[in-house]
Target: CoA-binding protein
Amino acid sequence: MDVQLQEDDDIARIARTARVIAIVGMSASESRPSWGVARYLQAQGFRVIPVNPGLAGKSLLGETVYASLSDIPNAEDVDMVDIFRRSDAVGPVVDEALNILPNLQTVWTQLGVRDDEAAEKARQKGVTVIQDRCPKIEFPRHL
Model:
């Protein structure tokens, strides 16, 4: 199957099945893409858990911000991690997610963000990986 078609099939499944999305690198600024994506996902019925060490303990969009994925209580609820960090920061986030999120189904990196080595590591653990795409752009085609 064509890689693009497979990725579109994966995105359609993710849009239908994801429930709890940890957003790593979420900003408190409404003008930042991470805030807009989080707000969109919430409006579509997804639970969004903000992760940003500089904002830990604060509240964004009605949810407590955590310093890291490891700090999220009920980590077993998280089935998708959406990464708003530079490409060189993706590897450690993916490693942490694979180690502490038992029900992780999807790792997603935002537009312009790729780490093929981390993506392969996640895929080898059975996790779907979408890179260099935005759920706010992709999900409306499938919801």
